[in-house]
Every structure is written in structure tokens, then in C-alpha cells.
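Hi all, a correction to my earlier message: I attached the wrong file for Cyclin-like domain-containing protein. Here's the right sequence:
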Amino acid sequence: MVGANDAESAIDLSCDEDLMALAMLNDHIIPQLTVATMKDILAELLQRECDHRPDVTYICTVQRDGMEASWRVRIAEWMVAISTEFEFATVTTDLALNYLDRHLSRRSVSQHNLQLVGLVALLVASKFHEPDALLVAEAANLAHLAGFTPDTIRSMETSMLDVLEWNLHTVVPIHFVECFVVELSPDDSSRLGEACLPFLAASRMSHEMLAFLPSEIAVAIVTLACQVTGHHASCASVIASLTQLVPATTTAKVERCLQILAQCIDMASTTLSLKRDRSPSPLGVEGLVLGECADDHQSTFCPLVKRPKCHL
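and the right structure:
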């Protein structure tokens, strides 16, 4: 069992100013982030981004309980829906998905328990990053249809932290997106930053994106956002500008990342178009948030439990 002092050390609760700056990055470009401070933060991000990466091959090499790529899509959709409902920061959502994929890179899970792993990943990420974290009681309330009790959730939380070795401070794509937006559009960072968010959301859907480093995913996201907002004349000019900031990446890798991201966007668009007429979930994951509305015989996203916090 990890002692309190060991746990604090592993979580990396130092007062290093660079790490404190990383922890402040949130849904939008923070006003204090200037071109000068961005350079320092970017250097720290590049140094740390290879740490605590999931295994892109885990569905084939680790999972022994029949897991398919569609399971990962479903659980990611559900986790994003929960995170959105509770108004968690983008960083929290990305951390939760990182914890999910790292757990699945080490432990095989059944269809039913995948729901539990996703829920606990959100719980841990919210405790780590949110000022108003998800409670075990709230998590149990969300998951009662699947039969997950508070004790079951606490047990999985302990198991997940063991798998993660308490390494919760992880670099995710939104960190790089923040820096790249300031570099490309220091005077209009808010508009470009907002344009990045839909592409960031799409990038979470496929486990194939795990083949790329967070910086490479961020280059692809910002490139597409620049197309939408007209910040640069061409994709090539954006990629050229950003790859200068990330020496280890190549144009070829970014272009491949863009191809997979485009597939993720198509997948997300299809999901939205089918919201009113969904096929049964292969996981039963949607059973936690989907229900029959009284005035509608089709399955729709019914409201989740709202705060104030619920207690068992």
C-alpha cells in the first residue's frame, strides 16, 4: 500500500513554477499566457509528454475479454457527456481518458466493468483537477442502473491508482493547443481557441489517436481550427509554423494524424445525426445516461443528476 508521503511524491505536488503553470491551463486560453511565458511552458510540456503514455495496441495485446474498438468509442462518448454535464474542464476530461487508456493498457476488462473503469477514471481526474470534484455518492448515483455500489467504486479507485502508480500529472493535447494558439494568434487567441474545441472533442473518440504524441495531435487540431477561422492562408503554412515549435515531429506524422482526426470528425458527426434513433449500445454504457422520455418513445439523452451534490 502506498503511504501518504509516497503518494504525494508520486502525484508530483511540488511547487515547481512550470508545473504550477501547467496545472492552471483550462478550457480557454488563460489571459496571462503570453508569448514569453508560452515558450517556457512549451519546453516543459515537450520534456514531459512522453511520460505515462497508453499503449495504442492494448485492444489486441492486453484485452482478453472480447473488447472491440467500438467499446472505446462508446465509453469515451459517455465520459465526455458526464464531464460536460458536470461542467468539468477540458483538461479534466482529457486526463480521465488518459487514465482510462492507461488502465486498459495494463488490465483486461469485461464489457460490464469497462463502464466502471470509465466512471472511476472521471472520479480520479475530477479529484485531481477540479475544485468541486465528483463524489463517490454522485458516481454511485450515476451508475446504480449498472449495479455499481459505493464500495465497488472505491475498490476500483484503489485498483486504478495502483495501475497508474499515482502518476496523475500527465501532459494532454489541450496543454499544447493553449500554447500553439498563443503563438499563432496572440491578439485573438480566444476566437482561435474556441475553434479548436470541437476538433479536440473529436480527437478523443478513437484509440488510434494514441499512436501520436499530444503535441502532434495538437498541431492537427490547431491546423483545422485555423482553416475554419482563416488565421492562416493554408494548412501547410500552419503545419510549418507549428512543427518549428515541436522539433521531434514531422509533417508526415501530422498529415497522418490529420487523416485519422478527419475520421474521428466523421464519426462524431454520424453520432450526432443518430442521437434520435440509436441502435442498442454494445456495452450497455448508454444505459447509465439514456432513458425513455415520457413524451418520446425513442432513446434520447435525458438529463443527468444535477448539482447540488447528491448523497446516498
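Sorry for the mix-up. The CA atoms of residues 182 and 188 lie 8 Å apart.
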